[in-house]
Design a protein that fits this description.
five-stranded mixed beta sheet, D-Maltodextrin-Binding Protein, domain 2, 3 domains, Arc Repressor Mutant, subunit A, about 20% strand, single chain, alpha/beta, about 45% helix
Length: about 325
């Protein structure tokens, strides 16, 4: 019997039980009176009951119809909730998992978290610094989004460019090399710090480029994350090559100097990637918009900071 019922029949039954008049129910549903009459006939067959019978002041419900009238709102509200389940404010999703390297978390989380707290205070953000297998994990729902140096989106995936970047060098602010000519030879003579990573997140690509140019330290000091590397170079003569936005964030916290590399390195572009399974989800779409807004705000802050630095040098 369940296969013989569709939502439209239940909506007709709801209107008939509310108005107890075929003509009024038809007007409420924007249907013709004959179509509602036919629907009532079909409903009577489905439930094996008259449901509504003529009375002195219109139609009156049978006991079975009165029972259905109590159950119907819950059933229809559940169906409406299924159709409108996506509350595009992060309400229906309590936890979101995002894979992003820690150096990008330093850049994006400061502008992103206040936006989320203001608009979806109950939403928990869990970050994973490991981008290994991100494509597979997106498909299987282990993570919701991935952020990093992602050149292209495979089939069934979507990619959104967040911002471009270039590489910069970090040294301690009183490093003796800062008083010398900053040349390739000076740069090559320094020992490098490098963030160890098995994931091809794009940050490690700069080490490959330096090696091709013959200026990479053959025995770099490997550390686990960007902040550990920053603390190491603050106390040593090491140099660290990182995306410029990351360098700006770290140098604002520690006594470090930022200088451009004396060699040309490929630009660095950060992108957001997600799987087709979540593409049309309203909550997911809302979160992607918030991440893009946070990235745009960070870009504006970066531009303002560069303007201030340029003005201070005049």
């Amino acid at each position: 019997m369940l296969a013989s019922i569709d939502v439209r029949m239940l909506l007709v039954l709801e209107a008939l039980l509310e108005h107890r008049n075929v003509t009024h129910a038809a007007r409420h549903l924007d249907l013709s009176q004959p179509s509602v009459s036919r629907a009532l006939t079909r409903l009577r067959l489905i439930f094996n009951d008259d449901l509504l019978v003529r009375g002195s002041r219109g139609m009156v419900p049978t006991p079975h119809a009165e029972c259905l009238a109590q159950m119907l709102p819950m059933v229809l509200n559940s169906i409406r909730g299924m159709v409108n389940c996506g509350v595009a404010q992060g309400k229906s999703r309590s936890t979101v998992r995002i894979a992003m390297p820690d150096h990008q978390a330093i850049v994006l989380l400061p502008p992103l978290l206040p936006l989320l707290h203001e608009r979806a205070s109950d939403l928990d953000i869990v970050t994973d610094s490991d981008l290994t297998g991100a494509v597979r994990r997106l498909e299987q729902g282990e993570i919701d989004l991935a952020i990093g140096q992602i050149g292209s989106a495979p089939q069934s995936y979507f990619r959104r460019r967040l911002y471009p970047d270039h590489f910069a060098c970090l040294l301690r602010s009183d490093h003796p090399v800062l008083a010398q000519d900053w040349t390739i030879d000076t740069f090559t003579a320094l020992r490098h710090a490098a963030v160890a990573s098995d994931a091809k997140d794009g940050f490690d690509r700069v080490q490959d480029e330096l090696a091709k140019l013959g200026v990479r330290d053959r025995d770099p000091v490997l550390v686990s994350n960007i902040l550990t590397a920053a603390l190491a170079i603050m106390a040593t003569d090491l140099v660290l090559v990182v995306p410029c936005r990351v360098a700006t964030k770290v140098a604002a916290l520690l006594p470090l100097a930022i200088v451009d590399p004396p060699v040309d390195l490929s630009p660095y572009e950060v992108a957001l990637i997600w799987h087709e399974r979540c593409h049309r989800d309203p909550d997911h779409r809302w979160l992607r918009h918030e991440i893009a807004a946070a990235a745009a705000e960070q870009s504006q802050q970066q531009a303002r900071g560069q303007s201030i630095n340029e003005a201070s040098r005049l």
